[in-house]
Amino acid sequence: MALVSWLEWIVLSFVIAASFLFFYIFIFPKWRSRHIPGPKPSLLLGNALELSNQGGAAPMVFERYRKQYGDVFQFWSFYRQIVVISHPDDIKYIIVTKNFPKAEEFNLSLSPLAGRGLLTVRKQHHQQRRRAISKQFNEDFLRQLHRHMKVELKILLAKLQKASEKREPVDFDKDATSYTLDVMCRTGFGRSADTQKDTNHPIPKAVNIALKEMYHNVAAYPIRNFFGLYTSPRLKEATRVVKEFASQVIEARKVESEQDRERRPMDLLDIFLKVEDLPDWDIIAEIATFLIAGHDTTSHTMSWLIYEVCQHPEIEEKIQQEVDKIWGDRQDWMLRFEEISQLEYLNMVWKETLRKHPVAATGTFRRLDSDVTLPSCGMFLPKNTAVLVPIYLVHRNPEFWPDPEAFIPERFSRENTIKRHPFAFQAFSSGPRNCIGQFFATHEALTTLASLYHFFHFSLACNAEDVRPYHAITMKPVARNVPDQVKSVLNSPKLPIWVTPRNSIPSVVEE
Ligand code: HEM
């Protein structure tokens, strides 16, 4: 009889193969990267447990790690290594000089909704798509935005006025998010989603669920990837709602008469429909991409600005003075297009908000397609390393931002900006994959905020310390604890605010 039976051979081979695989996946990469500082990973889970326990606070955990381990550190999500960088020299090298591609974790995790839209399209197809869409992001497009905003801003102002008359708080973040969503749809795709008018509209809820689920996809990538679980039933339903809206927008455009087409200016949808060989599902992906990238980023930043200014009456006073001076005694809902560039102080407050509360807090996620040596510290990173640039960390580096927790708009005066490292401010990222909508967002926010501070005074309807950042792709303010008086009017408000009138809103304005 054979000393070792065939069954024993099979078991033995299986054990040897499994041990080799275990060593290759869980032990060797950690041993090879032992020169990179970072929190101690457990063998199987890595640091996933600590990060998942923090529910929506990953950027703050990274901040703790940076204080402990320095500008470059690593953490492990199960067997996946992620190296975090936040020094401006390294950022410039990785995302501008080398322009490494986005990590597939990021692209796949967002793909159920964003498909192969501009945000997630692979590097080899990006340049051509970006060039085509960039053509639309010119001054004419900003002027169109300005015109379209007037319709939606009137609705927002009326809503705030009503609340102030009834002496009721508003959930500013919710109202601002519906507003920016409607502005994006009207300006980009020729039709408002009307979410300001219909408070139970399915799209804001669907976008919210989608962002949360896609964030879980990124955070739990190795597990979701292993089981192919990118599309949970919740994400599937949310995606269906958004894509249905996108299909309706496309259908409406396809049956538009030639005369109607000639009567209106070109918009984003016209561009998507013109890009050569772009199939319908890619057009839907672009609409979904601009819908998710182009509205709650701006609204959450406006919310953070209101939150900060509520705690700094001297800043509010300066904003009001600047806006009122430009406004004069004109009867209108908003400033004129040319006047927005005169809002120098408000622009500094806007930038300081983007610095302290960068809405795209975890920033950009890249994969090295060659070995690199980081310029800031000479550390070697091998090809295929996944590198994360969390903007939240970049903007809290005391070497470039002294007293980073303080809210100081003057950091962005011309003299101070010139003195700083050009890559220390990353709110819109940098290089070929930076934010295509940064001027759109800035124009929209400054125009809106100028009207808000002209017509109203705002104060927080909860303790400032009870408002915390919650991160799910975008980082928004969330009030953890609100007074009963607020609870009786608003159901789980994100940012409860009292609104007091300053100037009366005209009922009709000249066009
Ligand atoms: C305060 C507002 C905004 C902030 C802070 C912001 C921030 C960013 C950041 C950091 C990125 C880089 C993401 C990455 O590397 O993965 C990005 C990309 C992008 N943003 Fe924005 N964004 C804002 C508003 C907008 C608006 C209004 C639009 C559309 C009108 C928009 C459309 C996009 C698109 C399409 C990309 C992908 C660009 C590419 O890869 O070529 N964003 N944004």
TrEMBL record:
What PROSITE patterns does this protein map onto?
Answer: CYTOCHROME_P450
**Keyword Iron appears in the UniProt entry:** yes
Q: Does the keyword Membrane apply?
A: yes
What Pfam families does UniProt report for this protein, alphabetically?
p450 (PF00067)
Residues at which heme binds: 435
Q: Which chain regions cross the lipid bilayer?
A: 6-27
- Annotated GO MF terms: heme binding; iron ion binding; monooxygenase activity; oxidoreductase activity, acting on paired donors, with incorporation or reduction of molecular oxygen
The cross-references to SUPFAM superfamilies, in alphabetical order and at most eight, read: Cytochrome P450
Question: Which superkingdom does the taxonomy of this entry point to?
Answer: Eukaryota
Q: Which family does it belong to?
A: Belongs to the cytochrome P450 family.
Q: Which cofactor does it need?
A: heme
Provide the alphabetized UniProt keywords: Heme, Iron, Membrane, Metal-binding, Monooxygenase, Oxidoreductase, Transmembrane, Transmembrane helix
InterPro entries in UniProt: Cyt_P450 (IPR001128), Cyt_P450_CS (IPR017972), Cyt_P450_E_grp-I (IPR002401), Cyt_P450_sf (IPR036396), Cytochrome_P450_Monoox (IPR050196)
Q: Which organism is it from?
A: Galdieria yellowstonensis
Q: Which Gene3D superfamilies match?
A: Cytochrome P450
Q: What is this protein called?
A: Uncharacterized protein
